[in-house]
Amino acid sequence: MSSVPAVDATDARLLLALSADPRATVLALSQQLGLARNTVQARLGRLETSGVLDPFERRVRPEALGYPLGAYVTVTVVQRSLADVSAALADIPEVLEVTGLSGVADLLVQVVARDADDLWRITEQVLAIPGVQRTDTNLALRRFVDHRMTPLLERAAGLGG
Questions:
Q1: Sheet holding 95-100: strands in order across?
Q2: How far is CA 59 from CA 22, 34, 64, 133, 141, in A?
Q3: Whole-angstrom Cα distance, residue 150 to residue 155?
C-alpha cells in the first residue's frame, strides 16, 4: 500500500464534514468546525496533494457506464514479472484496481464487464499477458458493505469506538 501522512483529529473532523456534504464551501466548513477559513483551506490543500483523498473518479459507479458485472480475478505471475504484468493490466480499461497479495496468488484484480461474454474476453486478455501463469475468476454477486471510511474517521476524530 502507498504511504500517506497520518490524519489528526481535526483532519478527521474535516473529512467527516466533507463526507456528509461533499459540496460544502470552505466558509461553510470553517463555520461548522469552528476553524479559521485559512486553516480549512490549507488543510484541504494538504489532504489533496498528500494523497489522503482518493481521486473523484472513485465515486463513479461502473454500472452507470454500462458495466453491471463485477468480478475479482486472482492472478499467479511468473517470478520477476510482477511489474510488467501490473503495467499490462493497467492498460485494460475494465481493470479498476490491482492489489499485490501474499499467499498462493500474486495479484487481486478488480474488473468490470458488460456481460458474461465481455468478462470472458477480459479474462482471456489477462491470460494472454506475458508472465501470467494462471487466473481464477470470481463473480461479485452482491455488495453487502459499501466502501466506507466513516467509522474510522469517527474514531480518528475522537467521536467513537
A1: 95-100, 107-113, 69-77, 132-140
A2: 11, 28, 11, 33, 20
A3: 9
DSSP string over 49-92: HTT-SPPGGGGS-GGGGT--EEEEEEEEE-TT-HHHHHHHHHTS
Q: Is the pLDDT of residue 161 over 70?
A: no
SS3 content of the chain, % helix, strand, coil (to 5): 45, 20, 40
The CATH number given to whatever domain includes residue 120 is: 3.30.70.920
- Nearest one of 12, 4, 140, 128 to 72, comparing CA atoms: 140
> Does the pLDDT at position 1 exceed 70?
no
SS3 161: coil
Q: Write the pLDDT tens digit of every residue in 9-60.
A: 999 999 999 989 989 999 999 999 999 999 999 999 999 888 888 877 888 8
Say how many domains are in the chain.
2
Grid cell of 87 as nine digits = 503495467
User: Which structural domain, as residue segments, surrounds residue 39?
Assistant: 9-53
Q: Is the pTM value of this prediction over 0.85?
A: no
CATH of the domain at 13: 1.10.10.10
